[in-house]
């Protein structure tokens, strides 16, 4: 039976401090819930000759492929601002799978049992939240935003104790790596300079080989990660994605979105939107995501201080300058992203005003973020009275005038907008609907949702139901951490 695994496990060879060698804890009665065939193909993996029972054994960790060297990874993290030593408390890395001998992917089981990092947790995951990660991560990928992927979900046949008894599950996560800001924090806390050098070298070799022979690798790494994370958060702001738990352990060095817990998409535009039930003070609200990205990068910079310059004061000065520049990089990227969303070419001195006027109007009128841009592209079959508002009509006229400058035309403007404005996003009520059905072994709604979310920038027929936001009600939509 050849699946095509090609494991080469470099992380497992790092010093003991970085890892714990551990196997997944077998589960009672694994059953395959979903397998991502397209992703499997991209990974050069062929599961077509394996029946579902054996797939379930494989994706639960009950049967391990050869050449694996399973580990849990150590990391720390600032959770809502408080520093804690963490680590994979309910995940094991199966190994690094090589595609065409060049591309390297972490294959990780999430919900695979206790490890030495589990603290008081049971090491397990619940079916609903694992399917949620599957749906949203695949949607984010289709939106052309860097992210970890989801290869499979199996139910375990075991109940997991939360507020009540819930069905257990294991998610197979694919990532370009699981190195987090928190990984650096863990190693920095150990105060072993050699380990820190090892981690920097390892990260650079894996993600930024272009700076392997640089004179100041730590500094270059910081700059590159800042660039990547800045781009990532701009992408989130573009599509209205709210991560929900941007702790430093949930921020990757690769620049991929990771850890889909209480995340959700904003419907009506409100910069203060928070969905997570545990985010009482809105630390991770929609508009706080950029400053929090900067805050997390500052934590990464702190870890790198000993390598940036031998003189600590000098190192701090250099690192501070870099982090202080975040705002400039972000604002420029954000402005250009918003220009793209509005189909504006080149620059005009009134652009910021034009953009903010629209955002303010959306906020005041509780207009849907996604659908407003669809309305501007004139490709939304959903009619909404809100766009008859005089203030909006006035704004629209200014926008039309702006489109035509700098060589813009209605046609090329629309083309630009189509590439940047999704027509469909994973609406909260649709995701809930799909998950509820899946909990009752009815997978059709989830598969249907997934297939629509695969082409967010394409006008598909008969998807009105997926474009309508949930009615604005007194009851706020809440997401839960999903442990
Ligand atoms: P997360 O909220 O998923 O980002 O996880 C934060 C930390 O808590 C990580 O170290 C996880 O491994 C750990 N954790 C989350 N859920 C569990 C669980 N059920 N059992 C053990 N550890 C967990
Ligand atoms: Mg996490």
How would you describe the overall organization of this protein?
The structure is a single chain. The chain folds into 3 domains: 168 residues, no CATH class; 153 residues, no CATH class; 142 residues, no CATH class. 42% of the residues lie in helices and 14% in strands. The chain has 16 helices and 12 strands. The strands form 4 sheets. Strands 2, 6, 7, 8, 9 and 10 form a 6-stranded antiparallel β-sheet that branches. Strands 1-3 form a two-stranded antiparallel sheet. Strands 4-5 form a two-stranded antiparallel sheet. Strand 6 and strand 7 form a beta hairpin. Helix 6 runs antiparallel to helix 7 and helix 14 packs antiparallel against helix 15. It starts with 18 loop residues before the first strand and ends in a 16-residue tail after the last helix. It binds adenosine monophosphate (AMP) and magnesium ion (MG). The site of magnesium ion (MG) has 3 residues, from loops.
Features of this protein?
single chain, 483 residues, alpha+beta, 3 domains, 6-stranded antiparallel sheet, two-stranded antiparallel sheet, 12 strands, 42% helix, 14% strand, globular, binds adenosine monophosphate, binds magnesium ion
- The ordered H/E elements are EEHHEEEEEEHEEHHHEEHHHHHHHHHH
β-strand number? 12
Bound molecules: adenosine monophosphate, magnesium ion
Low-confidence stretches: none
Radius of gyration: 23 Å
Quaternary state, please? Answer: single chain
In the residues, how many domains can be counted?
3
Task: Tell me what portion of residues adopts beta-strand conformation.
Answer: 5-15%
H/I helix tally: 16
How far apart lie the N and C ends? 35 Å
Structural class: alpha+beta
